[in-house]
Structure formats: C-alpha cells, structure tokens
Amino acid sequence: MKFEQYAEQVVSHLPCSKWEKQDLKDELLDHLNSMKVELIEEGYGEHEAVSQTIQRFGPIGQIRRQLSESLPLLDKYMRKWFMLLFYLYVSIASYLLLLSPDRWRRRAFSVEWKQRMIEYGVPQYTHLFQNAKPFQTLSDYIFHYDNYSFGTIMYNLVGNIAVFVPLGFFLPLLFVSFQNMHRVFFLTLGASLVIEMLQFLFALGSIDVDDLLLNGLGGLVGYGLFRVGTSMMDRYRRKIQSDDDLTATPS
C-alpha cells in the first residue's frame, strides 16, 4: 500500500471539512515520509521501508479513531464560515429590532402620542404601551385572542422566540465558555434587555417583560438545537469508531 492511499483512507471519513481533511492528510504524509527516510538510512530498501512505516504507524481504523477523537466540534475552516453567519445574524437582528423602517414609523407614532398626551394633561398615559407585569401580554393573547389578528399574535409570540434562536445556537457552537444552558439563557436575557432599553430610549418600541421571557425561551430553543447537533455528531463519531474496529490491519 502506498502512503497516498493509506493517508486517504485514514482521513476519508473524518467528521470535518474537506480542507481540514487535506491538512491532516498532508501532515500525515509528512510524518510517513520522515519515518521512511529514517528507515532507509537504517538500511531498509525502498519498498520494505514503506511497508515498515505503515506497519509502525498502525491500522487505518486506529489512526482514524484517534484523529476523530481529537477533532474539535468545528475545525478552523468551518469555524470561519459559522463566525461569518453569526456576524450576519447579529447584523440582521440589529436591523430588524432597531433600524428597520417599521421601527422608525413606530417611533413617529410614539413621539406623536406622547406629545398629544402631554398636551391633553394626562402624561401618565405616555407609557400606555409598557408592560412590567410578567405573563400579562401572554395571557391577554390567550384569553382575549379575538381582540388581535392571527398575524399580530404570531408576530409577537413566535417572532420574539425565533429572533433569538440563532443566538442560543451560535454562542455554544463558537465559544466553549457558553456550552452551558444557564450562561446562554442569561446572556440572551441580557441582550434582550439591552435591546428593549434602546427601543424605549429612542421610542422605537414598547418595553414588555413578556418579550424578555420569550426572547430567553428562544435562546434556550437555540441551545437545545445545539445539543441535538452535538449529540448527532457524537453518534457519528461513535459509528466511525465501531466501523473502524472491523477494519483489518494493513499489510
């Protein structure tokens, strides 16, 4: 068996990108050729040195299993792509929550409403659209759903959950320190609170504690998706190991 064939079989089924496989293959070939040179210097012939090198390195399955166990969840190439997606998500979420034309139309309405309430001498109604009581908005959607359109309910319930699902997924995927459910939840809650405060300060929306709860739930859903993904990856790696146990030692 030639080094190229041996190295290709080792990396072919590793759970990583094709670019990482190529890097691992090149590194493995370097080690193989270095050992072959040492054996030739010891007096072995070319063919025998190749055979001895492969034999000393070990069975294909064993090397592949060791490499598989040492691989991170994301190799350096895949990490770049996921980091790019994370930045793209942050940009889109920031636009939707703070910079979209719809937000600024709401701002115009909110500013006009406050001015009118002050002119009418009822400044207490300038905060009519704020809710600091947990589950009040949610219960209102449930028990008085006939007062709202289906689109409004879906936008406020599903939308507030969905917008933070990617955050709960990307955080533990890209940062090891966030592979903890509590950290993801509290950071999601913190990010949601910052956005709510900015919306309030710039009159871009209303403060609703139920939005914070739904955003936090979205972060937990994203974290759950991350855990499902890692479980599937672990299962695939165990499958590689079980398949490699059946691989015969190369001659």
From TrEMBL:
Key word Transmembrane helix present: yes
Domain VanZ-like: from-to ranges: 89-228
Record's keyword terms, sorted: Membrane, Transmembrane, Transmembrane helix
InterPro entries for the chain: Perm_prefix_1, Teicoplanin_resist-assoc, VanZ-like
Keyword set includes Transmembrane: yes
Transmembrane intervals: 81-99, 153-177, 184-206, 212-229
Highest taxon listed in the record's lineage: Bacteria
Pfam family, one: VanZ
Protein name as annotated: VanZ family protein
Species of the source: Brevibacillus fortis
Taxon lineage: Bacteria, Bacillati, Bacillota, Bacilli, Bacillales
